[in-house]
């Protein structure tokens, strides 16, 4: 029943399609990262000297915490924050509908109202008073899905023009500071398509049913473990069958040996294998190989000599025949010439008379 439930849940889940991800940044990370879902996150190349990187993977107490509502906890272990408003520039391509997914998780405060900030496209606010702890608590992912239209070099959010949102073909994403601590961010994903085409519904389901999702994942992992265990047992069974077959062959060898020499001692179990792998058996194999190579060498030499003699014999038999034919041809030619001379002399004699 549980297996059926998992199959149904997976069938209705809609993960983010990596092929439609235009751009992704692992904020604060010094290297690229490929998520389990196949999204390739680039390292953070933000050059603003007034921003700060926090790497929570270096803090064992924080890194050991389970981050809820995500299958990509590595994204939330690094962040970039600032003591002022700061921004990211996201390259845009052709015109169309896009969804910007901004990833947050509160790793420091555990009380709501401690950190609050705004998100803007250019001068236009698209998310106001974001308080991650108030929405999902501490050590939990809060992903903001923001759909927008990119038309004629301008960006529209909810049909409202976002002034100064595009500069040199890049979307200006501003994290606006308030009096409640500092703005921050963990990851950015630009997706080609509207929210309905993303994993938004799956993410909402995950937040509402986290314990159930965790149990499903545990059951799924257990099923995978059982499959691997069963496959391992089957491999061992196949090896055992092969070994049993080899032992049968060895027993047949022992019986045959005993029938030929009754007085010979009975070989121990595994005698054939032991004989082959023993020093004497190895030496015997080497000697047999050496003798075989010598025989093969002599055989090749004999064949080569036979071919040479055959060629010489053929040449010897052919040469007299050729000389005889030349001689006969020469004699025939001489006879013709003599006959011709005789006829000419006879003719000349008749003309004189």
TrEMBL record:
Residue ranges, compositional bias (Basic and acidic residues): 310-347
Source organism, top-level taxon: Eukaryota
Keywords: Carbohydrate metabolism, Endoplasmic reticulum, Glycoprotein, Membrane, Signal, Transmembrane, Transmembrane helix
PANTHER family for the chain: MALECTIN, PTHR13460
Family stated for the protein in its record: Belongs to the malectin family.
InterPro entries on file: Malectin_dom (IPR021720), MLEC (IPR039155)
Keyword Transmembrane: yes
Localization terms from the record: Endoplasmic reticulum membrane
Organism classification: Eukaryota, Sar, Alveolata, Ciliophora, Intramacronucleata
UniProt domain Malectin: residue ranges: 21-188
Any one annotated GO CC term: endoplasmic reticulum membrane
Region (Disordered): 310-353
Keyword Signal: yes
One Pfam family linked to the record: Malectin
Name of protein: Malectin domain-containing protein
Topology of the protein relative to the lipid bilayer: Single-pass type I membrane protein
Residues making up the signal peptide according to the UniProt record: 1-18
GO molecular function: carbohydrate binding
Principal place of residence: endoplasmic reticulum
